[in-house]
Amino acid sequence: MLFISLLSGIEPFLFKGSGSFGLVNGTTLGIGWKNGEKPKREHFVNAIYYATDVFWYAGINHEHRLYHSSNFYTLLTTGLDYVEVDNMGSIGGSNAGDSDKPGSALIPHITVGLGYQTNLAKDIHLFIEWDIGIKASISNINIGLTF
Description:
The protein is mainly beta and about 150 residues long. The protein is built from 1 helix and 8 strands, in the order αββββββββ. The longest helix has 7 residues, at about 1-10.
């Protein structure tokens, strides 16, 4: 019964796509929802992929947007990223015991940021946001659409 009452407060789903530019470039696709509370809040579950010549990473995270006006918002993102690093470019060259296999790890994805969103058409919004935190790319500028 509690689950049904929680679902009744969720408005229709949102979709998000964005390009990210910064220390590492990549893309994000997400599905989200907003609630009718004041202040306005939106939530997204995002799948991400970023790549450079040296490493790539992919992950999943939860993004929480808190609107302070109709256009400006702050965001908090938490999740987990899988990172794979090419060992061929190690500093000091390779040793006889080194493997040519890439190194990999799971790392936390925790960021805070600021965003601005504007309407392009009914239910289509352009956003630009900046985030910084604990993640493989440290900081990014994200430009995208929600619909």
